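Human: We require from you a protein record containing the residue sequence and its fold in token form, and nothing else.

Assistant:
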Amino acid sequence: MSKKQKKTGEIKDEETSIKKFKAVFSKERVLADKSDEAVDLYNKSRYGEYVEDKIQYSLVEALHLLERKRAMLKDAKGKNIKIDVFRKICEKLEKNFWIRYCVFRDLRQRGYIVKTALKFGADFRVYDKGIKPGDDHAKWIVYPLHETETLTLYEFSAKNRVAHSTRKTLLLAVVDDEGDVSYWNSSWVKP
């Protein structure tokens, strides 16, 4: 490993020829320096958000980047964090993390840009293919659910109302025990 690679934390994965960037997990946050790889990934696929002089990743984004071998994750002391350990930490930090992650991964694999939607009262906002945040608005807001969960009519109506008021389509993403996702679309109809 060259001095430059050691200094920047960039490692070339010999099997895939993709350079990994280093991210640090500390205090429930995942941050990376603005390395060429991290910035390029942001510009092409909108992984992360700029926060001052760093790029911050949501927990689902970080796990997805680890699985895709695009990033290597370290703790605040510089020790490597393995994927399975990170997943367990995330499951302790966030309720329904695995359900949310299954939906995030599925949508990303289908070619959509997925961002958090906390300000909309939803889990994710999803942009149509070819659209990046800032170019246009998200098309859907997504609520991940396990197939055994139930929603009251009041809860469903509230979710649909949020989608309608933000001019987005509601998607309920239903995850089964195998991690497969089915999507249910809901919209308003005027008779």
